[in-house]
Each structure stands twice: as C-alpha cells, then as structure tokens.
Amino acid sequence: MTSRNHREETTGPAGTEAIGARLADDLRPGDVVVVSGELGSGKTTFVRGACRALGVPGPVTSPTFEIGRVYSGRVEVAHIDLYRLPSLAGEDPALLDDYLTPERIGFVEWPGGAEDRLEGVAARVRIDHLGGDRRAIVVETP
Ligand code: ADP
Ligand code: MG
After folding, report:
1. Rg for the chain (alpha carbons), in Å?
2. Which of 17, 49, 52, 32 has its CA nearest to residue 141?
3. Half-sphere exposure of 51 (CA within 13 A, CB side)
4. Ligand 1 neighbourhood includes 133 CB (under 6 angstroms)
5. What's the confidence (pLDDT) of residue 94?
6. Nearest to 66, CA basis, from 48, 50, 79, 77
7. Strand (E) positions, the chain?
8. Residue 89 has pLDDT above 60, yes or no
C-alpha cells in the first residue's frame, strides 16, 4: 500500500481541533499518532480535538512535569510530549511503553518528528505556521 498525504489549512484552533477529531474517528486501540511541528504550532490543540472525539471530558494540555498523561474516554488515551525530552525516545523508545499500550490510543507530540522506531504508528501529523492564525496540517497515513 502506498501512503496517503492529506494537506489542509486552518485559520484558527477550532479548525485544527476538527481535523484532529476527524482523524480520531479512524483510530482504534493500539494506534499511535505522531504529531510534529514547532512550539506553538498547534500540536496540543490537534490532540485536544482528537481527545474530545474519543470522549475525553477534561482538560487536554501539554504534560509539563512528566512526559505523558493517560486520559479516560471511550478508550484510554495516552498523550506524550517530548518537547523537554527529545533525547529520551532517541535513546530508548521502550521508555514510552509505560504509556503506549495495545489497549490505548496514543498521541506523541514530537517536535523533531520523523521517528521511525515507534510501533503501531497509524498516522503522522505535521503542523506548520503559515503566519498569524493560519496553519498547514499534513496527515500522512501509511
Ligand atoms: P504546541 O503543542 O504545538 O506547542 P499548542 O496547541 O499548545 O501548540 O498551541 C497553539 C497555539 O496557537 C494556541 O494558543 C492556539 O490557540 C493558537 N492557534 C492559533 N491559530 C491556530 C490554528 N490554526 N491551529 C492551532 N492553534 C492555533
Ligand atoms: Mg504541545
């Protein structure tokens, strides 16, 4: 199968959340979504939209003092942010195994992106600033 790239532009956070929500509809337990892009590009916003669609009711914010969180929705959702710890997964992706399990849907905010050693990657999302509130969002599915 060839991979599919789908590019869209959004003009505010609601649009980015909506794209996250749409992707979430296609996910099942064990799937991992890698979300890359600069600080402030909208990675957490995207994950928040996905989490809402998965039935997560509470706040979805970037984990700050830990590398990840687990939310309860219709499924369990793991949310990892490697902003402060880019070297962690580079050294040993198995350290993420505490969060990414076959029962959960996982989202990994990965500023550098392009990590190919994670298992179960169902989609890679790349978000880029286009100036102001505009963002380009590319969703690549294998
Ligand atoms: P990251 O997790 O990549 O650091 P966040 O999602 O935490 O980014 O922050 C993105 C910021 O940009 C938020 O303050 C959000 O309201 C703002 N924003 C403005 N326009 C957009 C857009 N089109 N998509 C996503 N976020 C946007
Ligand atoms: Mg973030």
Report:
1. 14
2. 32
3. 25
4. yes
5. 72
6. 79
7. 4-10, 32-36, 68-72, 76-81, 104-109, 121-129, 135-141
8. no
At 96, list the tokens: 């993420």
Residue 64: the pLDDT is: 72
d(CA 30, CA 43): 20
Question: What token pair was written down for 126?
Answer: 């790349």
For residue 1, pLDDT beyond 60: no
Could you give the CA distance from residue 33 to residue 112 in angstroms, rounded to a whole number?
14
Q: Nearest residue CA, atom 7 of ligand 1?
A: 44
User: What b/e sequence results for 34-67 when a residue is b if at least 16 CB atoms lie within 10 Å of its CB, and e otherwise?
Assistant: bbbbeeebbbbbbbbbbbbbbebeeebeebeeeb
One-character DSSP codes across 32-50: EEEEE--TTSSHHHHHHHH
Is 106 near ligand 1, meaning CB less than 6 Å away? no
